[in-house]
Amino acid sequence: MEDKVKEKFAFGILIFSIIALVILIFSAVSQTKVTGKVIENIEETKTSDVQGKFEISCADSDDGRKYSLKGTLNYCNAQGECSIKEDSCSGKKLTELYCENNEMKSEEYECDCYEGVCLNQVKDYKYSYTTSGGSGGGGGSISSGSGGNGFIGSGQTHELGVISSENTLEVAKDENIGFINEDKTYLLVIKDNTPTQVTFINGAQTFVLTVGKDEKIDLDNDSVPELNAKIRSINIINGKIKLTLSPA
Hints:
CATH class of the largest domain: Mainly Beta
Radius of gyration: 37 Å
CATH architecture of the largest domain: Sandwich
Structural class: alpha+beta
Number of helices: 1
């Protein structure tokens, strides 16, 4: 009799254990489904947030295809990946970066390329320089400070127009650089050069610039510099001078 009671008790424990195990498994499965749904919702929310956050953008510092200016382009794509690139040279080819419909574009342009710019790019500005003194204006006479000797070099004239940003060009002895600053027309003449220095004339003024040194130039003797100038290099074989000019 005692053995039968023990068997019933053991059988009852077994049934109870099986029921408890079934309940435990069911509960675990239910929780897994809920947790998975929550994770799925979170992932969907994150993806939605990312897609809505990033916008394509493109900005070009030289505002388009300007071969005589070195531009820096900032571009961000739809995935939020951003890059900064500059116009660059490869031999005689300029890779000019620009924006079109908010997308980054590039163009290869063949020229005498140097540090991301085309040297000696003649712009659409033409002036008739004369040897008269006085302040130059829209007529295109030489601005020569307080009088002037009206000297013009015998070589070519590099027309830069209004200098509103950095311009890099290649010049040589007896050549001229024509430009406008604050509605006045100026002509810098490359009078002479050594392996380390270049002498410029602006009317009655004379400026001596040293290679690698930034200089501020007062063009009209009012004690206020109008121009920044820097000689980047001088070729001792052909005398070519790489020069950068920008507003002061």
